[in-house]
Write a structure and sequence with these properties.
Blueprint lengths: L4 E5 L2 E6 L5 E7 L2 E2 L19 E2 L5 E2 L3 E4 L2 E4 L10 E2 L9 E5 L2 E8 L9 E9 L3 E10 L5 E3 L2 E2 L2 E2 L6 E12 L5 E6 L6 E5 L6 E16 L4 E7 L3 E6 L7 E6 L19 E3 L4 E12 L2
Antiparallel strand pairs: 1-2, 2-3, 3-4, 5-15, 6-9, 7-8, 10-11, 11-12, 12-13, 13-25, 14-24, 16-23, 17-18, 17-19, 17-20, 20-21, 20-22, 21-25, 22-23
Length: 292
């Protein structure tokens, strides 16, 4: 049984799993699952939690290879036989936990390794109010040189088949046959959720730019809604097949494979450059309410 650390404030109840990559095992409001809950009898992995952190980069690095500061770099391909390195490696580590009042704090420190060429540490803070959860993710550069880094959150909203989704972004990156972004276009009608509508299974798994920093999921049959806000400039929108019955809306600091597309720090779609001893921060809030 995975050790869970629970927190409650008002109608909000969470459980965090430090051993599962610091994942958020569940988020409940008035007893309703807002995010897909971790199945205590099922396989225990971070990416089966309600949400998990993406650090020190988000989504994909093509073939686990990139070039930085005059050197070719290799990072471990970390998801079975998948050809690319996925979601950083913080989600595959055990985090250390402490609880303080209505907040839960997780920390992780990693040396330079095949997972990332430079030493780093990260912190997650889960802060509750009576109707919301705010998650803050920090990356601190422990190397003695500037390094690239990126952050993201990967929440899975529950009961997609009973939901309606709002998500607005100006542009989207199309993916090639290698599942990597190849061309940026204006958001097409198929992926236009500027007005609430039911999510279409297996229709999208792409990184969107020009995002307004807000998304929402509502469940009319349950009479509740959840609004996500973030300071991230980009978001991955992912609707898998019906058997998974979730919608993922992932605030991210850079696009997929950004390290091989843009020089770091060159745009809102690029990875950041973090100076020695400096910190990169990303925040996400999920606020629950009655669906009116």
């Amino acid at each position: 049984m995975t050790l869970l650390i629970e927190g409650t404030c008002g109608d909000v109840h969470i459980a965090v799993a430090p051993a599962l990559g610091g994942g958020l095992a569940w988020l409940r409001w008035r007893g309703h699952d807002i995010l897909r809950p971790l199945n205590p009898q099922g396989e225990q992995r971070a990416n089966l939690c309600g949400s998990y952190p993406l650090v020190p980069w988000s989504n994909r690095i093509a073939n686990g290879r990139f070039h930085f500061a005059g050197r070719d770099r290799v990072v471990a391909r970390n998801f079975g036989n998948h050809p690319h390195a996925l979601h950083g490696n913080g989600w595959q580590q055990e985090w250390r936990a402490q609880q303080s009042g209505e907040s839960i704090v997780l920390t992780l420190q990693r040396p330079a390794s095949e997972g990332w060429p430079w030493p780093w540490e990260a912190q997650q803070v889960f802060a509750l109010t009576e109707n919301s959860l705010t998650m803050t993710l920090n990356y601190r550069n422990l190397a003695d040189i500037p390094v690239p880094a990126g952050l993201g959150f990967h929440p899975f909203f529950a009961y997609a088949d009973r939901s309606e989704v709002y998500f607005a972004a100006q542009r989207v990156w199309l993916n090639g046959d290698d599942s990597l972004p190849c061309r940026e276009i204006a958001t097409p009608e198929l992926w236009d959720y500027r007005v609430f509508r039911q999510p279409v299974p297996e229709s999208v798994d792409n990184c969107f730019t020009g995002w307004n920093g807000e998304a929402a999921v509502r469940w009319p049959s349950r009479g509740i809604s959840a609004t996500l806000t973030s300071d991230a400039p980009n978001a991955v929108f992912f609707i898998p097949g019906l058997e998974r019955n979730v919608v993922a809306i992932e605030p991210v600091s850079h696009i997929n494979n950004a390290i091989n597309i843009f020089p770091p720090d060159s745009s809102e779609q690029a990875m950041d450059i973090v100076l020695p001893g400096s910190t990169l921060t990303l925040e996400m809030t999920i606020r629950m309410s009655d669906d009116e």
